[in-house]
Amino acid sequence: MNQIEQYSQLIRKYLADQASKEEQELLQGLLDDPVFLQAWENVWRENSYPVQPATYPDPHRMMGNIWTDPRIAQPATIQQTTTDGHFNFRRRWWQVAAVFLAFFGAALWGYHNYYEVDTQPKELLSKVSIVPGSDKAMIILENGKEIDLSLLRADTVLDQGEYLITKDNKGQISYRLKDNLSPTKNIVYNTVVTPRGGEYTLKMADGSLVQLNAGSKIKYPVKFDAKLRSVQLEGEAYFEVAKMDVKGKRVPFIVQSGAQTLEVLGTHFNIKSFGDRIVTTLVEGKVRLSYADAALKEQVLAPNDQVVFDKSRTRVKKEQVDPFYSLAWKNGNFAFDNASIQTVMDEVARWYDVEVSYQDQLQGQHFSGTISRYENIDKLLKTIAFAGGVHFERKGRRIYVLN
C-alpha cells in the first residue's frame, strides 16, 4: 500500500468518525504535507460531488456547517476566562481546517469542472493528479446494508448471524461459523463490489480465495449448499477454489457470468467478463464451460487453455496461451502481447478511473510489454505511446488518444 492510500484510509476514518485519538493526533501533523493534501483531494473526489456550483451552499452557510460539526464543537472547544472577564473560545485549528477542506475543496473542484475545464491551458490540465487503484470495495449484506470495507479497521468482526466476517491486517475479509453452532439450511447472500480504481480479496466460507479486479462485482452465499457451490460474477476475478467434500462426495463449484456457466471441482482460473466478451483462462486443474445457447458446444479446459466467448457473435474460441498475461493484474502489473490500443486503454481506464476518447481513426496500433499498475499515469502513457505508435493528450481525468 503506497503512502497516498495510507493517508486516504486515515482521512476516510476521520470523516466517518472512526479515527482513534492517536490517528487524530497524526492528522494534526500532516496538514502541511503535500502528499497528505493530495490524498485528501482524492478522497473527496471519490464522493462524486456534483459539478454544478448552484448545488453548493453559500460560503457563510458552509462555514456554519463546519463550526457546528460535532467533532469540533464538542470535544475540541475549550472555554477560557480572559483578564477582562470575557470568555475566549479556542478550537483545534487542524480539525477546523480538515472539515473546511472537505467542504470548500469540493466546491472549488465543482466550479473548476463546470466552468473552466475547456479554457485552461493544456499544461495546467495535465497536472491534475491521477493515482493508481488500491484496495477499495463495498460489501452489501443480505439486508441491503452497504459497508465501505476501506473504512473498517484491521481485525474488525461483523456479525452475520451464524457466521462472522473478519477483516485481517492485510485488508482481506473472510467468513467463519460461530463457535458451537451448526449451520442451518438458510442461505444468506453477500455481494462485494469494487469501483473503478479499486480491487479486493475475500476468502469465502469454503476457504476459496477470490481476488476482484477494478469495476467488478461478485455475489456469493455466506455459507455454501452441501450439494452445490455457486457464485455470480460481473467483471474480472481470479479464483483459487478450495476442494469441498460432503460425506465423501466432491461438491462442485459454479461461476455464473451472464450466459456462461463455469463448473469446477478444485482449481485456479481467471474470468474476465466486460462488454460482449468473456475470457476464461485456466491455470491449474480442470473446468467445464457451458452456455445458455444450446447451439454452443461445451468446452473442457486443461491448464493454459483459454476460451473467449463472444456474446454478440455467439461464438466460442479456444486456444493455448501463456497465462502470465491474464494474471498480470493480480500481481500488480499490466501485461499485453500484441494487444490493440483499445484493449490496453480499457485496462488503464478501469484501474486509474479515467475516461478515454479516441480523436482519430486508429488502425493497426498494438502494444506488447509489461508495466507496473502503480506507475505514474503520465510515465505510463509515455511508455505506451513509445511502443504503441500513438500519442496522448491529457485534460484532467480525460485522456485523448491520437495518431
Characterise the protein shown here.
By secondary structure, the chain is of the alpha+beta class. The protein folds into 3 domains: 114 residues, no CATH class; 186 residues, Jelly Rolls; 71 residues, Phage tail protein beta-alpha-beta fold, CATH 3.55.50. It has 10 helices and 28 strands. The protein has a 19-stranded mixed β-sheet that branches. Strands 25-28-27 form a 3-stranded mixed β-sheet. It has a two-stranded antiparallel ribbon with strand order 1-2. Helix 1 packs across helix 3 and helix 4 runs antiparallel to helix 6. The longest helix is centred in the N-terminal third of the chain and has 24 residues. The protein is flat. The two termini are 35 Å apart. About 16% of the residues have low confidence.
The third-level CATH topology of the largest domain is: Jelly Rolls
Number of DSSP strand runs: 28
Structural class: alpha+beta
Estimate nothing, just give the exact number of structural domains: 3
Report helical residue fraction.
25-40%
By CATH reckoning, the class of the largest domain would read: Mainly Beta
Report, as a whole number of angstroms, the end-to-end distance: 35 Å
Query: How would you characterize the largest beta sheet?
Result: 19 strands, mixed
CATH architecture of the largest domain: Sandwich
Tally the helices: what do you get? 10
| Proportion of residues in β-strands | 35-45%
What ranges have pLDDT less than 50 throughout 5 or more consecutive residues?
47-96, 106-121
Radius of gyration equals: 25 Å
Let me know the average pLDDT: 79
Global morphology? flat
